[in-house]
């Protein structure tokens, strides 16, 4: 699942950044069209967190995935939708840029943690 739109990769410079979700790979947790808040810094990423990251093999692609485990000084990521996702199984280790802390549109609420 990518965030933003074509050519609109958000820069996660601010402590909290709003981003739009594109694609089905995190369904049912996040759906195409959802808007979320991403936090840089704060507590460290833990397994089960939903994160915004960049795969080392695809640095131009900003993605939303679930952190599974630490690996090679980065994170192994998976999508929640087993039938429609490209994740670390295809692209390898990713560098996490921030944690998704809240969905504010269209169904406001915190995201469930699962592994």
Description of the structure:
- With 115 residues, the chain is mainly beta.
- The protein has one domain (2-105): Ribbon (Umud Fragment, subunit A).
- Helices cover 3% and strands 44% of the residues.
- The protein has a seven-stranded antiparallel beta sheet with strand order 1-2-3-7-4-5-6.
- Strand 5 (58-71) and strand 6 (74-78) form a beta hairpin.
- Residues 5-10 have low confidence and may be disordered.
Output the helix-strand order.
EEEEEEHE
- Shape-level CATH architecture: Ribbon
| Oligomer type | single chain
Query: Which value, in Å, is the CA radius of gyration?
Result: 12 Å
In angstroms, what separates the terminal alpha carbons? Answer: 17 Å
Which range best describes the helical content: under 10%, 10-25%, 25-40%, 40-55%, 55-70% or over 70%? Answer: under 10%
CATH 4th-level superfamily: Umud Fragment, subunit A
Query: Would you give the CATH topology?
Result: Umud Fragment, subunit A
- Give the CATH level 1 class: Mainly Beta
Largest sheet: 7 strands, antiparallel
Q: Can you list the strand order of the major beta sheet?
A: 1-2-3-7-4-5-6
Instruction: List the domain count as a whole number.
Output: 1
Proportion of β residues? 35-45%
What is the general shape? globular
Structural class: mainly beta
Total beta strands: 7
Report the mean per-residue pLDDT as an integer: 88
If helices are DSSP runs of H or I spanning 4 or more residues, what is the number of helices? 1
Low-confidence segments, given as residue ranges, are 5-10
Keywords: Hydrolase, Membrane, Protease
Organism: Micromonospora rifamycinica
InterPro entries: LexA/Signal_pep-like_sf (IPR036286), Mito_IMP1_subunit (IPR052064), Peptidase_S24_S26A/B/C (IPR015927)
Pfam families: Peptidase_S24
